[in-house]
Each structure stands twice: as C-alpha cells, then as structure tokens.
Amino acid sequence: MYRLVSTFGCLALLFLQQAAFGQIEFFQGSFAEAQALAKKEHKIIFLDAYASWCGPCKRMAKTVFSQAEAGDFYNKHFVNLKIDMEKGEGPTLARKYQVSAYPTLLFIDAEGELVHYQRGGLPIDRFLQLGQTALSKIDHSGEFEARYEEGDRSPELLRAYAYSLLMSAKPSLKIANEYIRTQEDWTTKENLDFLFDFALEADCTAFELLLEQQQKAIAQKGEEEFQNQLLAACRSTAKKAQEFQAPELIKEASKKLKKVDAKLAKEFEAKAWADYYIGLKDWAQALKYSKKRLKKYGDAKMQHEYARIFGEAQTEEKYTAEALKWAKSAFEAQPSQEYGQTYLYLLRKLKKEEEAKKLIQELHKIGH
Length: 368
Fold this sequence. Notes:
CATH superfamily of the largest domain: Glutaredoxin
CATH topology of the largest domain: Glutaredoxin
Strand content: 5-15%
Number of strands: 4
Strand order of the largest sheet: 2-1-3-4
C-alpha cells in the first residue's frame, strides 16, 4: 500500500522536491534501438540499471531524475534509457556490464562499449558531475585542437573537431561555422546531416541553412524529425533569452519557426513566454502567459506542473488560489497520489482543512 504523506511538513518537503519544471526524458525502446539513436545523434547512452524492488532506485527516479537541472543536462547530452535488470533484456545486459547492485548508472557508447559507471544512488549535484565525467571520457577534442592550432583548417579536420566538441558537451558552433564556410553544396547527405546536428539554436548559421534546405531535409529525415529538431533549437534559444534577459530572441525564433509551421510556432511561443517570465520571477506576467497557454494547450499534466510552480514559489493568495484550481482540475481528470499530494499541499496552504480531510480519504482509497 502507498504510504500517504499526511503531515504538512513532510508533504511540503515532497512538494518542493517535485517542483521542477522538467525532467529526464527516457527513450521508449530497446537497447539496440537506443544504440542506433545514439549513433545517429552523436551521443552516448545513459542507462539507469534498476530493479523494481530497489528503494534507492525509486528515490533517484522521484527526487533526482525529475529535477529540471537533470533533465536539461541529460536530455541534451545523452540518449537516456531505463531498464529493469530482472526483466526482458535486463538479465543479458546485467551480465554483459557486470551489474550486481542497484541502481547502477551506466554510460555506454553507440558501439556498446562501457564508458563510465557508478554503483548506487546519487544526489543531484553528484549526478550532474557524474554526467560531466562520462562526457570527459569520450573527449578527443584535444587531439583536433592541437592540429587546429598548428594551422590545419581542412574541411575534414574542422568537421571532426566540431563533432568531437559536440559529443563532449563543449561549445562547438565556432568550429561548426568554420566548416560551414568551407562548403558550397548543402544538398549532400553528409552536409545535410551536419546542418541537422549543429542547428542547436535558432540564431545560428546551421539553423538558417537548414531552413533553406527544408524540402531536402524533410525528404531525408522525415517531417516530424525535421520539426522536432527546429523546435529543440528554438527552445534552446528561448533559454538563452531568459539567461540574458533578451526577449527579442524568442520573437526571432518564433518568426523563423513560422516559416515551417505556424501552428508549431504558436505552441512554442506559448511555452517560451510562460517559461521566460517564470525564470525572471515576474509572477504577474508569468501568470498571464501560463493561463494563456493552459487555455489553449492545457491537459492534466500541464495543469499539475504549473500548480507546483506557482504553489511553491509564491505566498500571495491570488497565485496560490490559481495554483489550487489547476491542481484540483488535474486531480479530477487523473486521480493519482502525485497529483493528489500537490492538491492537498495547496488546500492546506490556503487553510481549507475540511476539503483537505475529504481529499485525504480519497487518497487513502487510491492507495489501496
């Protein structure tokens, strides 16, 4: 039976742990399919080797993998995969990589070679450090840098150097742009792949060229993958807009995305502006844009996410009251312990004790 968090203090702690707006996205497929994706995207695999009965595995999933910091870093640099080592292909992988304790956090290249590993759960700061260490193990950029500094500017060197920087999570756009300047024909598969891989932001040269080659890129990659790449680049630019307080970057990214799909651009803008003002802690504007996004695109999951953000970050009653509406709607649409605990936290925050008691009874029923 699920153990209900029934005290305000414990519930608040759990709420704060879950209040991240983003999380690690785990690939839904086999290990072989993850390898193929890793090779295609010039990444390595992060494999959470867990067991269903493992307490530390569950804690990491709940308190570390769910955090925005973890999601931002791991989604960008790895193909993330979770496999129960006691089911399906798990036992075979456990033997191959000598997994004898849970969780074991594995970093594996596209050829299946073990790059780095860690046994046991980690807090968020050490988990992020672990990822950086894994990336450093595949960093061969120093070899190319030496040749570059000696004056080698051949297209072959620039291309290899750019990819080595990309794989090791180092700034790569300067070298990528140098390679781009050596090329004239962007219709070849090799060069279209390069544009696809280095269209990392909406305000970079590779992105502009990829838009110019839209039809050829779609023919090679497929429309969905093409749009997903552009959307990811625009979201990176939106994060930069927040970091440098440069809202014009969001407008620029949206304008470029409209050239491909006006509907996709509107959806991007809705999220980007809400995230922008949340990041700046401009709560009046954040509320305005969050409500706007929820009205057009909102589902239970999105309502719950915004309920957690506003419920945790704000003490003013008007914001908490809005968060409560979203939490209630999310719980009614999809009754669950997670949504219910957020709803309960906000009821108690607004001192609605009678409603909180009724909700606790519902949560007990769900727990059975």
